[in-house]
Every structure is written in structure tokens, then in C-alpha cells.
Amino acid sequence: MRQANEPGRPLLALPSKRRDRPAYEDQETDGGGLMYAGDTEILRFEAFLTPAECALLIKLASARLTSATVALPEGKRVDHPGRSGAIGFVMDQDGLENVSDRIAEAIGVPKERFEAFQVVKYGPGDQYEPHYDTFPDGSTWLKPGGQRIGSFLMYLQAPAAGGTTIFPLRSVEITTRAGDAIYFPSAWLHGSTPVVAGEKWSATKWVREEAFPWH
Questions:
Q1: 165 Cβ contact list (under 8 Å, min separation 6)
Q2: Which of 76, 118, 157, 174 has the fewest Cβ atoms within 10 angstroms?
Q3: What is the per-residue pLDDT across 101-133, written as a single tens digit (0 to 9) for each?
Q4: Under a CB-based contact definition with an 8 Å cutoff, are residues 206 and 148 in contact?
Q5: Domains of the chain
Q6: How far apart are CA 23 and CA 129, in angstroms?
Q7: Distance (Å, rounded) from C-alpha 16 to C-alpha 33?
Q8: Is beta strand 128-131 parallel, antiparallel or unpaired with respect to 190-192?
Q9: 29 and 197 in contact (C-beta within 8 Å)?
Q10: Spatial CA neighbour of 11 closest among 205, 171, 156
Q11: Please, are residues 97 and 103 in contact by the beta-carbon 8 Å criterion?
Q12: Any idea of the CA torsion for 50, 52, 55, 60, to the nearest 10 degrees?
């Protein structure tokens, strides 16, 4: 797979009409015409977070961790064999308004359309098989805010081995490096490979079509 390493620059450019198949649904993901400037690119930002910001996100999420689950269309969250690890949600008001402001500036989207930070802890063997961040038509999760259109993924702690981010239909593999971030269309198939040694921590801010109340 191609290794991505240029900071803040497009890593990949493909026709915007290409569609992937959702991991847990039988229908095609739409997502066309919903993206930020350039829905055919993965953007990478080196050292987007400071070490102190990474540590704060980990500290705040650590007290709120629960088993990692996946969202069903009817509004439930359930365990899934394709996802392991633990998740915790952190709000901007927990002292992270500055981080959301920088994300908004970096991608050109107002932070009122952001969800809360979802912090994920992966231990040895934990992974998230290739999946989509979008919801199917008619899903309870679409209200309020509409569809997820962008995924801003930040790396808080790198494992000793494993735990890369993959885009299997686009042959891109991104090595985890603490402080770096990537931004990509939520309708793109992606996953986190198993951690081999150490712990991987990441945080995601999802961007909605419209204003979202819990950020």
C-alpha cells in the first residue's frame, strides 16, 4: 500500500463519483456533493495537536471508556466482531474549544456542525475492520444534523507496532504518529489494522451536513 506522509496536502485524488459498499449495510452509500472543498482527497496535517492536547484528550476519555460498539440504523449501539477496543466521548467545553476552532479553520467548516470528540483506545489485538462512518437513509442517527460528510481523525498516541489506518479500495496506508491528523470523506471505506504491541489512541471529529447540538 502507498504510505502517506505529506503534511496538509492531498494524499489521493480520485473521481468524486466513485462509491464504496458500506460495511454493515446492504445499500450503496451516497455522499456525493456533500464534501468539503475536494471530496476526492485525503488531507494530512503534521503535528496538528500538541503533546499537551493529546494527553488531555486521553485523560478525559479514560474516565469515560466503554466497549467499542457500532451504530445500528434504529438508534442502538451494539457489539460487533469487526470492532474491538474502547471508546469515550469528550465535549468541546471540557477545555478543547481551541482544538475545534483549529479544525474548523483547517477544513473550512463551522464547528457548529461537528460532533463531540470520540476517543478510541486500541490495545494489542484491537482493530476496526474496514467500515464507513456514514449512516443509511432513514437512520435515526441522521437527526439532528443530517449525514456525516467528513471525518477528522487525530492520532493521540502511537502503538509500538501495528495500528495503521487503511483505505483498502484506494491502496493507502497511514502510519500512526502522535499529534498528526487526517481528514477524509466519511463515505470512504477505511479501517484500523490490529495493534501488535503497545496502545493506540485516536480521536475523531465528524462533520455533519447541518448544525449538530452536542459538540
A1: 153, 173, 174, 176, 182, 190, 191, 192, 193
A2: 76
A3: 999 999 999 999 999 999 999 999 999 999 999
A4: yes
A5: 2-6+37-71+83-207 (2.60.120.620)
A6: 9
A7: 8
A8: antiparallel
A9: no
A10: 171
A11: no
A12: -110
pLDDT exceeds 70 at position 212 = yes
The string of pLDDT tens digits covering residues 171-211 is: 999 999 999 999 999 999 999 999 999 999 999 999 999 99
Is residue 27 packed enough to be buried (19+ CB in 10 Å), middle (13-18) or exposed (0-12)?
Answer: exposed
Average pLDDT estimate for 130-137: 94
Determine the Cα–Cα distance for residues 139 and 147; give it in Å rounded to an integer: 10
Integer Cα distance of 166 and 170 in angstroms: 9
Strands (E), 41-135: 43-45, 66-67, 70-71, 77-78, 86-90, 117-122, 128-131
Q: Report the C-alpha gap between 136 and 133 in whole angstroms.
A: 10
DSSP 142-168: GTTT--EEEEEEEEEE--SEE--EEET
**At 113, phi and psi to the nearest 5?**
-100, 5
The C-alpha atoms of residue 132 and residue 173 are separated, in whole angstroms, by 16
